[in-house]
Amino acid sequence: MASQDKKQTHIHILGICGTFMGGIAAIAQSLGYRVTGSDQNVYPPMSTQLESLGIELTSGYDPKQLDPAPDMVIIGNAMSRGNSCVEYVLEKGLPYTSGPEWLKHNLLQKSWVLAVAGTHGKTTTASMLAWLLDYAGLRPGFLIGGIVQNFGVSARVSDTPFFVIEADEYDTAFFDKRSKFVHYLPRTLIMNNLEFDHADIFKDLDAIQTQFNHLLRTLPSQGKAIYPADDAPLVEVIKRGFWSQQETLNGDWTYKLLERDGSQFEVYLAGQLEGVVNWSAIGEHNVKNALMAIAAARHVGIPVSVSIDALREFKSPKRRMELLGEANGVFVYDDFAHHPTAIKTTLAGLKAKVGDKPVIAILEPRSNTMKMGVHQHTLLESLSEADEAYLFEPQGLGWSLKDQASKAGRVCFDSTDEIIATVCAKAQPGQHILIMSNGGFEGLHQKLLSALKANA
């Protein structure tokens, strides 16, 4: 469709303020479509980003927003039957699709797609990979589930063939229960790791492995999968059927830490030293992410030495061990960690960085899987690297966090105000406070920083 025709084509997006759907909106507008959208509550930061692009937003799901009818309705996966706009679309026979399916037909089929899948590290690794390609002059398009600080946005369209995408295993839409990533048509595929997660849609690990098997079935014979050789669930997926090329971490690619916190490490390919990375990221998990990003960049022709240079200028995405500020010698960080493994590795990375300085963890179990209690028996152990840990029990939790905290000798609160008061009462210069939640945590981050600054 010519750009002039697209400008006459109206796309309306239901659930537009999520990071993924907001990215779809920005991409559609860049391709020349007229884009509008709605969400239950139009909220920042995505609402701010979309409004700055001139995209008209509606708060709520009154079906009046669909009259006159748009040419296409893109329905986000947070929408379900019973939603007034969804029911209107079905009743009136309006054309509709999902975000992943729309992206496939309008962009990805024409692109060399580099996809990053896995339970942990997708946003960070996809951000690294997009930056490596950009640094090397390939100027990729991308759609990533976080603000990439090297670019300042979460999505963009490019006139080059390359497109980097965070490949989420969550379901596509109320009418398509396949994982989003089966629509993405990767030619280069990173699979970081695989554990049980998303208990609200997957009954067990095997169900997730089945979706990863479906993903591998879309990888062409000259495509390449990059994954850790020692990740048993991923190895099992490979054994179920594999028709492409592959390279492995802790196989083809290895590393040697030169600094305990991962801020400096050597890169090896087939046992040969390729160079040394010095960068601002920390944690051995990020070292592993970096090696797989380097391998993926090499698949599109970028020399390892160029990727190593690029990583020196890489900035971690927002909400991934992001230093929010310092108040009277106390450092406050924000991290998206929402799974015991991610919590443990993130804390280990921070502890390795700060040495004998005290690390204080503040955690809100907010993901659907956490709320269902799937990880309740391993959650407290994941905080073992923290010198102190304070937990927040949100409303709607399907199990008693207080009971588990009591057994582990940790403190659990019902109120974020109580957490702030407790932390401020014990604040000492040199402390490093890590706040972990995949939500807003009732504004705790900035409230705590302000309280610490007033606590002189």
UniProtKB/TrEMBL annotation:
Enzyme Commission number, as recorded: 6.3.2.45
Name of the protein described by the UniProt record: UDP-N-acetylmuramate--L-alanyl-gamma-D-glutamyl-meso-2,6-diaminoheptandioate ligase
InterPro entries attached to this UniProt entry: Mpl, Mur-like_cat_sf, Mur_ligase_C, Mur_ligase_C_dom_sf, Mur_ligase_cen, Mur_ligase_N, MurCDEF_pg_biosynth
Keyword NADP: no
Pfam family, one: Mur_ligase
Pathway: Cell wall biogenesis; peptidoglycan recycling
Transmembrane is among the record's keywords: yes
GO BP term (any one): regulation of cell shape
Species lineage: Bacteria, Pseudomonadati, Pseudomonadota, Gammaproteobacteria, Alteromonadales
Molecular function GO terms recorded: ATP binding; UDP-N-acetylmuramate-L-alanyl-gamma-D-glutamyl-meso-2,6-diaminoheptanedioate ligase activity
Domain Mur ligase C-terminal, residue spans: 319-439
Enzyme class at the top of the EC tree: ligase
Record keywords: ATP-binding, Cell cycle, Cell division, Cell shape, Cell wall biogenesis/degradation, Ligase, Magnesium, Membrane, Nucleotide-binding, Peptidoglycan synthesis, Transmembrane, Transmembrane helix
Domain Mur ligase central: 116-297
Cofactor: Mg(2+)
Positions of the Mur ligase N-terminal catalytic domain: 10-107
Homology family: Belongs to the MurCDEF family. Mpl subfamily.
Segments passing through the bilayer: 12-33
Organism superkingdom: Bacteria
